Amino acid sequence: MPNLTFVLPHWLYWLGLxxxxxxxxxxxxRNVGKEIKNISAPLAYFVLITAGFIGMHRFYLKSRWGLxxxxxxxxxxxxxxxxxxxxxxxxxxxxxxxxxxxxIKRYQDQIDDGEEDAVEKLKEAEKKLALGEQHxxxxxxxxxxxxxxxxxxxxxxxxxxxxxxxxxxKLIARCKEKEDDTSQASGFACPVxxxxxxxxxxxxxxxxxxxxxxxNEFVGNYIAYWSAIAVIVYYYEVIARYVFNSPTNWAHESMxxxxxxxxxxxxxxxxxxxxxVRVDVIxxxxxxxxxxxVDVLTSxxxxxxxxxxxxTGWTFFYDSYAVNEVSFTEWGIQYWPVKFSIPLGAALxxxxxIAKLAKDINVFMTIENDKPDDxxxxxxxxxx
Length: 384
Hints:
Blueprint: H1 10-31, H2 41-51, H3 56-60, H4 69-112, H5 118-178, H6 210-224, H7 226-242, H8 251-265, H9 267-272, H10 288-322, H11 336-364, H12 374-383
């Protein structure tokens, strides 16, 4: 198999983080509420191109003939492992030859200087040289045999994929006959706990805080699509490493930097959705008004933390930008855009914290909220 030498350009990495979520959000928004087909011809061809070597297009079309690809793919993986072992054997044999030649030259010089014990050492080094050359020949034969095996398997898989490329319309038509094409798109919804404990202001809507909620909601939805990028990148890494023997030096680094930025930028959205972890053993039994009062008091510690995060995050970003800091790996990606996510995320959390504080004050000032909410009443009833 040929080696893959692709290295993700820096500009493509940053552009992908910016553009991919917008494209994904546009596609999702355009198809919301529309009737979708269970079997999609473009998707079937896409699966054939990207994962056809393991028969995923056949499984997508509910064809058991996809099982043919699995042993071929496993054989390909095993053969590549043997090739890597062969490369190690060749490398060791070459090192053995180099070492033997060095010792032969040294012992020859010692013989010329009249050292009698160097003769036996010279003969031993010559034996090791002959043995190393023999090992090299055997290792090359081993390596070439497994390379031939890989080529045969790869060509077989390629031929099967080409055949399926032309058979795909017939397979799609046959699969559609078995499927109900009138199914409606069903939106994804996270499961909600039946008796989840929320802060008193989670459902409060003030006119001037609405834009803060919408801002963090947009940012949260925007960066959520970065997770799809991780699927694509790690898929490429697995294929490059185990099929083409070409592990990357950028896939893992690019993704942990992306996830670090995603973590901090999602803080404001998590606060809006009341999704941060909190100890609510006592809090859950408070009335809405009492919950709001407690949240107002503890907001002091919240603002101390996030303001410190904003200040130190800006310092980290500015120092990194000033020296154009890059990673220590061969990829050499810039660090300052990632570090900029720290003060930006902190600013979004502060804005949402201000909005939550205003809502909590509004709840506290409303006397009607001085009673347990529905979830609390159900929880207390179940406890009794």
